[in-house]
């Protein structure tokens, strides 16, 4: 038995990368008849539509044009059209390996598992991407979910899926933690999930040295908002750990200069804004 997937892709400013993602699904070992691809296009009309629909007539693609930008908002638009057993949210510049969906389907055929999460990994270079991922299977809980989550590696049974908080994520007022908040709320609803390194996807490695101070501020505000939203003991602990980490980085930066000038000021300013302005949303 194979499960049906709905992949919701909110895309902006990328064409080749999006086509590479779709091609990775087409070339994979999973039956494409079991894959629904929902494209929520935030570009100007004509950037994608005719080319996308003409080149992939053999695939089940639902194309939606959106006049409003925002990652979480447009993922929520795509959710309205999802029909699959399993819902996921790949970035428009990631890729699936040939066996990715097979691995996920095998796991989620278990009626006692509501969602699964995996790692972002480059099989060619044999390197973790974005963060150091656990190489052990884990039962996901509200604490460890923050350290092992990425929206592109979350695969959830449809009956458990919630809307994203549209105040969070790229294009929103608070520019991060939409994925952390999403999985945290699913866990609050008593969902049972696992993390396994057997699930692998590819994503380009971000260049953190080129990140602007405005983005640093915006991303930090997302964490502040996430912590302040329905704050509980676990979120307080996450907050304390992050502050400790940043203070250690600040001290080390005095000697090694790994962060650009103004980084820590921007980070803590953004963190304060996220906490302070949560109630205004």
Automatic annotation (TrEMBL):
<keyword id="KW-0472">Membrane</keyword>
<feature type="transmembrane region" description="Helical">
    <location>
        <begin position="236"/>
        <end position="255"/>
    </location>
</feature>
<protein>
    <submittedName>
        <fullName>Glycosyltransferase, family 2</fullName>
    </submittedName>
</protein>
<feature type="domain" description="Glycosyltransferase 2-like">
    <location>
        <begin position="6"/>
        <end position="135"/>
    </location>
</feature>
<keyword id="KW-0812">Transmembrane</keyword>
<dbReference type="InterPro" id="IPR001173">
    <property type="entry name" value="Glyco_trans_2-like"/>
</dbReference>
<dbReference type="GO" id="GO:0016758">
    <property type="term" value="F:hexosyltransferase activity"/>
</dbReference>
<keyword id="KW-1133">Transmembrane helix</keyword>
<dbReference type="InterPro" id="IPR029044">
    <property type="entry name" value="Nucleotide-diphossugar_trans"/>
</dbReference>
<dbReference type="Pfam" id="PF00535">
    <property type="entry name" value="Glycos_transf_2"/>
</dbReference>
